[in-house]
Amino acid sequence: MGCGRGMGASLAPAERLCVDLDVVGHWMSDGDVGNAGTETLAQGRVLVGFQVFDRVALVAGLSYNVVSAYRDPSSYGTFGETVLHDDEFGDWTVRGFPSVSLGVQIF
Length: 107
Description:
Elements: E1 2-14, E2 17-29, E3 38-53, E4 56-70, E5 82-86, E6 92-106
């Protein structure tokens, strides 16, 4: 089970060019009672888009991700991962890492 929310702003410095600034959050749980299996992902990102057709753009950008996990030793960052918090009991871990986004945006 999971859900997510986000908000952002879009700037159009040229007719076919846009710059998006987004803040997104996701919450996931495997359904266990209490905090076990609970993770959150927060993401701040900057995307640049170029409109190739009417209502279709190619986008690319950078983001920084922060994952908070309860009793989950998984490593999500491919490079540049930093442990931001690791409590003394090993229950909660907070990790941060950069990422790259590439995609197609349909308006």
